Amino acid sequence: MQDADAAVSEAAAKPDTLLAAAREGARLVREAADLHFSLRLWDGSVEPLGAAPVPGLMVSVARRGVLPSILRRPTLDRLIRHYALGDIDVEGGSLLDIGRPFALDNAKRKALRRIEKGKLLRLAAPFLFAKAEPPRESRRFADDATGEKRNNKDFIQFHYDVGNEFYELFLDPEMQYSCAYFPEGVETLEDAQIAKLDMICRKLRLKRGERMLDIGCGWGGLLAHAVSHYGVIGHGVTLSEEQLAFAKAKMERLGVADRVTLELRDYQDLGGRFDKIASIGMYEHIGLKNIDGYFKKARALLADDGLFLNHAISRGAKKKQTRFSKRPEQRALQRYIFPGGELDDIGHTVAAMERAGFEVHDVEGWRENYQRTLMIWSERLTARRAEAEALVGAATYRIWAAYLAGCAMAFERGSARIFQTLVSRSPKGASPAPRSRADLYSA
Predict the structure, then answer these.
(1) What pLDDT was estimated at residue 142?
(2) Using CB atoms within 10 A of its CB, is residue 98 exposed (0-12), middle (13-18) or buried (19+)?
(3) What does the alpha-carbon distance between residue 86 and residue 66 come to, in Å, rounded to a whole number?
(4) How far, CA to CA in Å, does 29 sit from each of 82, 106, 120, 219?
(5) 36, 243, 390, 432 - which has most CB atoms within 10 Å?
(6) Strands (E), 68-124
(7) CA pseudo-torsion sign 314, 342, 345, 299
């Protein structure tokens, strides 16, 4: 018995090589980059990553085997899964509080890259041989399908049918899940989303009695605004059953159901002609291989003197034509948030529109508007964390919190962009767009 007690005492007295390596790593980071937060290790000890970190703001590591798991397979996917399960967490603030100052400070990122590689390898060695605790799957994940053989309905329902109650935690009353518009004097998200809806209607030059199509109509906010304020006859399609039910109830509540038809239908199956067409935040879902077919279909649906507005997130053009979906960030978005989603660059989008026979009239960038929108969504969702976890579970909440915060920072850095592009069906003869746009921006 005494031998056993002695062995336990001897083991307890041995220094923990993983803790020692983690603390030394924290010291290197602190000296190199002077970050604004701290690191809480699995034994409860706290290591500042800067000379004067924000009090209480820290990244915490729950268990001894988490860092070995990440270092043995240092992928974004593995990091996300550890975060979703709570193996890694943020204390004393939000992901925006951790990531935003660091993401915007290029000098700190460069300083971290200058840490001597030999020192880092020596510190990593104990973790590579220690017992790892890989993350388990925490929710149904989507297939990474981006080609023509896609089940668009399954993809859309994966994202939007997480539940209307969940989206209500951070969206505005109109349930606008796309970039708001913050002209001078507009401060609240609620007012900015109304300003967005009205700007779209004015760009389309809506007139009473015109037939308007909303491809991917969501919860019906744009159609409700267009029908109520501009007197159009609206038609909307979505592939989300939850959105469709909400939109139909909204039209009934507003007393405009007799002027709006809503369908659970893929845009590819639509027929007829429409005077005006809007596609708001849907283009990102169709997949790069389907862009030419998408614009060909939109042109076939548009009246000869009609206008079509395409509102879509984009990426910057690359020097080499590599698929954006190969990047780790895009693969993570496809798996956890937007299955089947891919981003185009605006130059390729405009070229594809012209190949389809459209005349391009206006291209307007709204990047800073979307950065502000996403910041508000992220802050609202974080503030209602307990309600969100009760609705969808802790893992799904964490993935969404990371998604919104990450996107807000991407738009702020400029690595993600968003454009509204207005086109008409034919470049021949008189244009359906006026020669001046002064009325759109005048007070």
Answers:
(1) 45
(2) buried
(3) 11
(4) 22, 15, 10, 46
(5) 243
(6) 88-91
(7) negative
Q: Would you state the structure tokens that stand for residue 230, as one six-digit string?
A: 């501009």
User: With 90 as the cut, is the pLDDT of residue 222 above it?
Assistant: yes
Decide if 407 is catalytic. yes
**332-368 pLDDT, tens per residue?**
665 666 666 788 999 999 999 999 999 999 999 999 9
C-alpha to C-alpha distance for 141 and 216, rounded to whole angstroms: 23
pLDDT per residue as tens digits for the range 257-282: 999 999 999 999 999 999 999 999 99
Residues near 130 by beta carbon (within 8 Å), at least 6 away in sequence: 17, 18, 64, 65, 68
pLDDT at 156 over 70: no
Burial of residue 360, with CB atoms counted within 10 A of its CB: 0-12 exposed, 13-18 middle, 19 or more buried: middle
CA 394 to chain centre: 19
Quote the tokens at residue 93.
């603030």
For residue 439, what are the β-bridge partners?
none
**Helix 76-84 × helix 328-336 angle, to 10°:** 40
Catalytic-role residue among 179, 201, 217, 407 = 407
Strands (E), 358-429: 359-365, 417-424
Tokens of 419: 């454009």
Please check whether residue 412 is in contact with residue 305, taking contact to mean a CB–CB distance below 8 angstroms: no
- Phi–psi pair at 279, nearest 5 degrees: -135, 105
Helix (H, G, I), strand (E, B) or coil at 262: strand
Q: What are phi and psi of 438, to 5 degrees?
A: -60, -35
